[in-house]
Q: What sequence folds into this?
């Protein structure tokens, strides 16, 4: 309960900060919308040339892409931890975090949120509706509910993986280039995994389970019943990975060495 | 009741050393040389509720490391720390409710938002009720003269203004224990005085325990009756500031400037039966007698010298705390070296 109320306190604070720089805000919203529009056009143009991909139609692939954008947008709004090493370890900002009575990871999420990224979710939904209507998909009463569950599962998968990578900083001093690499790998989740070879497919399912952010849950809404098992695994994998990452985080904080003054 | 109990506290860091040259760098790839360096070396001390303690030491003596262990930021390698009856690291979230922390070189406030918004958010973070907040913070804001700053964003404040706000922010939940790490670094005298006065006041009013590290010994002289001195991870002194002066202060210096030409030899024979030493400055103008603490000798020296020569100026200098402490470190190095 306390954490929920803190969440809204920080959101309110965030809005206030944003409104303070009014011109900035307008420019940013405009550029975000423009970016999303370009993104949308780009998706349609690129997939225009692929009729079928290993048994997936063009519209199905667009649908998967659209689905992927929703958890990805949520992830990028709340888990801006790609610069965790520099900002919190090297500069020692974690000292401050650790002297406050809220879980350290939660504080960092609150401090680093970037709500503008949520626009990506709107694009994702638009893409899904576009592809869905062309495919003639029907929406049943349980779909919105499952959609929320799958999206949250996907967010947790993403968050779990990136929190674990951020945790490397607790053990190794040096900066690593794993973060940008992981963003690249994450993109593979937005295409049907059966187009890759088996090793990559295994990795994307069980080791870096990015497939659970895009293709697996989206397959459910596309009515691809051969993937249903994986679809329903999405929240489970999400919870497992995220819990594991929080556990590693807590262990890591114990090893935090601090930065010299 | 003890606010802080520290027993056999130790923190070790692995210090990697790199070999020289390119071939050395290649060897470092596979086996890195490291040695274990104790930053804090089995220290013991207790601080009673309501005490103001100065924690001093040179850079790298282990001050910050100790403070970070006391505040739950770092986990000790061994030993026990009990602060406010809790283990800081293990019960971190509950524990930090009972302490306030000011790191002089690091801001607690949000850069972009107005000071009062920062306060409001911290009030929520520490779950302070409106009644408590109003009663306590009205007073803090008035004493630290923060009213005109409240609606300004932190980034527009000067260092002195920001520091006062930091201090207020650390006190929002009225903690019984306050850690101040270099709170007056880079501040002008007026702000320093204001901060000191304020600290004294909250100490009296709420019996707040204060642990203070600083390089500015005047802070310590103004606030703390007790000092804990650290050198290379070891406590080399723990006790009253006054007895530190008595024990280590090496007597007095009496400087004379004469109207006529004086001879060092003559002065030495004049005071030959007293246990003193004469020194002459480079410009051969000022003659200085270094004496012990014995008042009798001091007056004897002055009486005899003034009788023998016409004097333009006489000064009696007592070594400052700063000199005493430098002195201790020079000797401390020899003892621990």
A:
């Amino acid at each position: 309960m306390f954490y929920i109320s803190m969440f809204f306190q920080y959101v309110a604070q965030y809005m206030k900060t944003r409104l303070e720089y009014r011109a900035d805000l307008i420019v940013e919203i405009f550029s975000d919308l423009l970016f999303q529009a370009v993104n949308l056009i780009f998706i349609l143009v690129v997939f225009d040339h692929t009729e079928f991909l290993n048994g997936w139609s063009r519209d199905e692939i667009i649908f998967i892409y659209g689905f992927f954008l929703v958890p990805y947008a949520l992830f990028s709004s709340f888990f801006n931890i790609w610069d965790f090493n520099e900002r919190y370890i090297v500069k020692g900002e974690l000292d401050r975090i650790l002297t406050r009575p809220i879980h350290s990871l939660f504080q960092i999420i609150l401090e680093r949120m970037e709500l503008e990224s949520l626009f990506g979710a709107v694009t994702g939904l638009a893409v899904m509706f576009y592809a869905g209507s062309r495919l003639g998909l029907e929406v049943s009463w349980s779909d919105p509910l499952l959609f929320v569950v799958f999206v949250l599962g996907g967010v947790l998968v993403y968050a779990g993986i990136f929190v674990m990578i951020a945790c490397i900083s607790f053990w190794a001093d040096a900066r690593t280039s794993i973060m940008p690499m992981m963003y690249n790998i994450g993109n593979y989740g937005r295409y049907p995994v059966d187009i890759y070879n088996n090793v990559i497919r295994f990795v994307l399912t069980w080791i870096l389970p990015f497939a659970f952010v895009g293709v697996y849950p989206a397959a459910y809404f596309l009515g691809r019943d051969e993937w249903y098992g994986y679809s329903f695994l999405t929240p489970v994998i999400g919870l497992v990975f995220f819990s594991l990452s929080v556990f590693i985080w807590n262990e890591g904080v114990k090893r935090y060495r601090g930065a010299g003054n | 009741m003890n606010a802080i109990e520290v027993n056999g506290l130790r923190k070790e860091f692995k210090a990697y050393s790199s070999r020289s040259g390119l071939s050395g760098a290649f060897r470092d790839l596979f086996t890195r040389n490291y040695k274990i360096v104790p930053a804090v070396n089995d220290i013991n001390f207790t601080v009673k509720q309501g005490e103001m303690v100065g924690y001093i030491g040179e850079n790298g003596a282990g001050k910050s490391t100790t403070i970070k262990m006391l505040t739950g930021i770092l986990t000790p390698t061994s030993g026990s720390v009990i602060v406010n009856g809790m283990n800081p690291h293990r019960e971190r979230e509950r524990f930090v409710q009972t302490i306030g922390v000011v790191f002089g070189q690091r801001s607690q406030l949000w850069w972009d938002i107005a000071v009062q918004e920062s306060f409001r958010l911290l009030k929520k973070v520490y779950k302070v009720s409106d009644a408590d907040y109003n009663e306590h913070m009205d007073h803090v804001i008035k004493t630290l003269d923060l009213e005109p700053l409240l609606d300004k964003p932190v980034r527009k404040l000067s260092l002195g203004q920001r520091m006062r706000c930091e201090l207020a922010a650390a006190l929002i939940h009225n903690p019984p224990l306050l850690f101040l790490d270099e709170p007056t670094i880079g501040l002008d005298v007026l702000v320093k005085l204001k901060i000191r006065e304020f600290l004294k006041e909250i100490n009296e009013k709420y019996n707040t325990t204060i642990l203070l590290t600083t390089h500015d010994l005047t802070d310590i002289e103004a606030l703390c009756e007790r000092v804990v001195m650290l050198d290379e991870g070891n406590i080399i002194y723990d006790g009253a500031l006054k007895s530190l002066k008595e024990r280590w202060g090496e007597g007095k210096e009496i400087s004379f400037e004469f109207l006529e030409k004086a001879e060092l030899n003559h002065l030495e024979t004049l005071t030959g039966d007293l246990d003193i030493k004469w020194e002459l400055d480079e410009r051969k103008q000022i003659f200085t007698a270094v004496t012990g603490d014995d008042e009798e000798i001091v007056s004897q020296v002055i009486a005899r010298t003034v009788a023998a020569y016409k004097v333009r100026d006489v000064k009696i200098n007592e070594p400052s705390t700063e000199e005493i402490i430098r002195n201790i470190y020079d000797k401390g190095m020899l003892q621990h070296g």
User: Anything to note?
Assistant: Residues 189-206 of chain B form the longest helix (18 residues). Chain B touches chain A at residues 13, 64-65, 68, 71-75, 89, 92-94, 96-97, 99, 101, 103, 105-108, 110, 112-113, 117, 121, 124-127, 153, 181-182 (CB under 8 Å).
